[in-house]
Structure prediction request, 200 residues.
Amino acid sequence: MGTKGVLYGLLLVLLLISCSKDGNDGAMGPMGPQGETGRAGIDGRDGEDGVDGQDGEQGETGTANVISSEWFTLDFGETPINAINASDNMNVPDLDQEIRDNGLVTVFARKSNGGDYLYFQLPYHRYNPDFQYYSIKLFSAVDVLNISVSSVDGSDIYTPYLTEFRYIIVPSGIAAKGQASVDYAKMGYEDLCRHLNLDK
Prediction:
């Protein structure tokens, strides 16, 4: 190879070396436009409805725990009663301490009036013509209800005007026909029976 060939060879090598050096990175180009939103996928099938559960048992009515007696006759003593006070006791097995403290114990009397009855809630004053007062007491014995008759004017009782009685006991927290709060103590006999679903 001649001198010119050698020179051409060296020149070619230098040229290749100079071209192999990395250049500075160019500036980042502008962001391209956003592509179109892809098509929505197909909705999956709805699952099958579950089996309905069984109906629960119907609860008891709100008056299920009300306690009431039949009409009973008290013995205030042999008539004529030559005294200003007379009383008789009635055993009430369901009259527990919880009811005594928080429930309502009410007593009604009735008097025959032709083919119907007149009803009276105790305590009851009668001023004409007998002048008698009827009241109830709860003694220390939990299940004893005492009903007494007293002379209002200080004379002897002779013959009690009332002898037939019935007690109605309402534990605390019992609502009447969907009503949240009812004052049973202020109800007459027929209203109370209607609210508590009791026979007269």
Remarks:
- The domain at 68-195 is CATH 2.60.40 (Immunoglobulin-like).
- Strands lie at 67-68, 72-73, 85-91, 104-113, 116-121, 124-126, 132-138, 144-151, 164-170.
